[in-house]
Structures
1.
Amino acid sequence: MRFNKPEVLAPAGDAERLQAAVDFGADAVYLAGKAYGMRAGPKNFDADGLKKAVDLCHSKGIKVYITCNTLPRNNEIEPFGEFIRFAAQCGVDAAIVADIGLMSLVKKFTPDMEIHMSTQTGIVNYVTAGELYRMGAKRVVLARELSIGEIAEIRDKCPPEMEIEVFVHGAMCVSFSGRCLLSSYLTDRDPNRGQCAQPCRWGYHLMEEKREGQYFPVFEDEKGTYILNSKDLCMIDHIDKLADTGVTSLKIEGRAKSAYYVSVITNAYRMAVDLFSKNPDDFTLPQSIRSEVFKVSHRDYCTGFFFGHPTECQYYSDNGYIRKYDAAAVVESCDEERIYAVQRNKFFLGDTLEILSPGCTFDLYKVNALYNEYGEPIEDTRHAAMRFSMPNTSGRIYPKGTIIRKAVD
């Protein structure tokens, strides 16, 4: 059961990241209110922000899913009714839940709202998926630990009206479906309530109890000490194989990532899905699109469990990111003569930049002139968030939100 054009589902950790997802082609976004979401670090959305977010997305034909996917304790149950009723009043299209109790409360307080069962639920077989559908779930977000073949079997053995969502890009958790206790034990920050301190990314050593203070590195195959540190997931080369399983939605991880990250990765998957839908029987991803996923801060990539048991998905040498590009600016407006933008990182006259607009691969741009907001010539963009302009030498009119980036030395 192939979907020739699966949904591109982008993360939105705050209003800026939401705008990036909207500008760069998301079909739907997922976000959190100030409670019940699995990412406590981002700003997320207060009551006023949530209403504005839904109005913006719906004006562009984009759906909004609100995350209620923590594992709530007793004291969090009573306030949930007011929370989910307000989300429904705002026009949220679906609630993402992991807890059967919260699922029952969504049905009770907002019976018309769609329910999506979170990856935190740990759905790995067609019986569980089908039963959740019969209980009222419209969509199941499958566990990351499934292969392409297992996903296809779930699709074949469940009602065709049941939607299936899978994660296709971003950080992976060493614990099953993100259900981890390391952070709770080591830092008293509960990962199942959005507070993970990511201790799986730390370096570990062995200490013999009678030799206090003498630490020994923990090695595995002589690759290093970061024994729990997973690579990032990337499935952009395999849109056709994902579509062949019958999945409805391709989910990008990253509510804690930057607006630049959301822009670039959403744009890459948007272009890949659009290209696939034009010729689904002969899909080959151009290098110009594939290269985009390497122009954000990322760990080494792998394909997770999609093609069987992963043998190269742990990263032992360090816990850092690969970063070869920075956002230099974001376009505010453009005409045939000038590009007007707001600075994100400093750059200089003579630099070569890349301009990335929605639905396109980048244009190269040589900085031969720069002007401050008063039209005076300047040598660089040294002030944080300064407004500036530069000549439009391409002849293209770049839309608001277009990314200007530079390679990192």
2.
Amino acid sequence: MTTAQLESAETPNTILSRLRDASFIHPLFAFLITRTIVLLGGYLGEIAIPGITGEGLYHVAPNNVFLDIWARWDSGFYLEIVNEGYKFIPDQISSVAFFPLYPLLVKLTSLITGNVLFASIIVSNLSLLGGLIFLYKLAELEFDADTAQRTVYYIAAFPTAFFFSAVYTESTYLLVSVAAVYFARRKLWAWATLFALLTSVTRIIGLGIWGIVGLEWLRTHGWTLTTIYRADAWRNLWQGLRTDWHNLAIILTAPLGLLTHMRFLNKTFGDPIAFWTIQSAWEREDLGFIRIIARDLTPVFSQNFGTGDIWWHVILDLSAFFFAFIAAFFIWRRLGAGYAIYTLLGILLPANSGSGSISRYILVLFPLFLMLGYWGKNRQLHNALIVGFSCLLGILTTIFVNWIFVA
């Protein structure tokens, strides 16, 4: 080993200093504090409150409450994919609706743990920690260190953030999507493309991350949606195409992840878009988001809040929709068109067929939490968010583990 190699090698002190770095410490604290809330809320809720029982309300690990509480609702599909592979039964709810990256990571991890459920929980939680680290770095890049600290606490304590620790894809998608954008902002195009590719095999909305990476490449070469009418923007773009075409070519490969999965579906089931075809089995109506929101909003005003006979989860989802929709305009002004368009797509696409689960879907719309982190410089708002989010996180976790639908 040369002298230069020795000097550049990681020493124990260097590694320790990295672990003490704020971009690791604050995400770690946010992770530990909020995971303690969801673990205690879930555990106490499961043992203290009689859970709902019935057909389809499974318990993967009935003799281990600490593990069992994280497998509810759609978790069964991911566990089925890991254990048995994909299934496609036309006109019936099938596992083919779910994308492969998370089950693949669980499968690989289970080779070490020997337990699929335990492996799923490990993948979910490690992905969350990784996602928080990248989100901190991105928030610091877009704003400052104080905003970054608030951002990671807000997203980790969001009322539906228990999904980050459950057998769901939320945390894995957060990790790969934020990492893709962070590397794009750092102009590390190969890394950005790799993670953008991974987003497209985690969720269909991952193609929106590819769009953000592409827009970032355009922005670095003087072309943006707001300067589209200017001749100099097009001259700059032409210059960029001439001098930086190789990085653009790399970025254009990001959809290969989704295309590879579509090829697998076509070969296995004869339908390359089986993940979309099967959506009809969930009885979601393609009415357009305006009609859907109007339909779901109308009954809210006729419910009896005094007796408690209300659709509380509908109110939760509608509140999440309007929060994200309004915040998108502020995101456009402060963070740019790419972030705002991605946020709008993240709520409008699912809202075209139903408002259900939007309070879960917005968990991964990290531009929302970047803006919340920015707004949280107001001390009163910051305190309200921390207390309100933490309380609701504990309550909704308790509800979730007892087989009551949240999102």
3.
Amino acid sequence: MPSNKDWNYHPDLPLEDPSLFARPKDVGYIAGWLRRNWLTLSERVLILIMSIGVFYTVYPSLERVSNPGISWAFEVLAINYALVFTITGGLHWYFYMRRGQGLTLKFDKRDHSRNNRNFLFADQVKDNMFWTLASGVPQLTVYQCGIMWLMAHGYAPVITFNTHPIWFVLWIMLLPVWSAFHFYWVHRLLHVPFFYTRFHALHHRNINIGPWSGFSMHPVEHVLYLSTLLIHTVVASHPVHLIFHAIYQGPGAAMTHTGYEDLLIKDKRSLALGTFYHTLHHRYFECNYGNQEMPWDRWFGTFHDGTEEGTLTTRARKKKMYS
């Protein structure tokens, strides 16, 4: 496995552009992108399966939401907590408590920080759990319940698979692209010194990330980060789209912050998880503000390709920004 003095493991460098925009006119490339992302066991396919499962088993219907009372909102809150403990807690247990893969495919060989007063309780994991559970999950629930109420009362456009099958499928596939667009610009805003020092620095204490780091943010950052869900108030959606989007943004953030590139089953890469792309952002800060769904960083000169030259360029840009 490739490694160097900075990383226990890294993918082949320099990082390539895996987005749909890399070769938009190449039919074969687009087919490969669809296969990798939607026709194999991937992060988003798992989240879609979860979304459909909870919608048909435990989620309150829009009909129930339209009736008086708010007991349904507490059910959504309980479901979100259950999802976070299942996904985030499960990944943390496997990779960091059970040590299921050891250091294999782990980007940073260091363990999570302990006895460090930069974190609440002087413990990185406990700090991350606090912000995720005390701020992240409640705010995610408020956004979801507000949009569900608007849907139920006719203030937000709603579709069904039977009436709009093509858009139903297409919107699911486009949601990660929309999320990447929104994330890049909100993230750039959060790196403006005024916002960074007051809010975003809390998330960036996690230089060596883990599953609980993904949704650990200052409450103000949660407000901005989760505003991506407001798209469902103007774009025709089904509750499954909203649930998929909410899991993708909330509990799903644990997958991209595992600190490992893939889950191995019998020494075979079985599920893509953490991205080196975003891990570089946590190490070097002023680079890779977005994710690989949209090549904004490449277009705007904030891309770190993982090489030593990329690190030097990023450090020079950071020095210029804060000089």
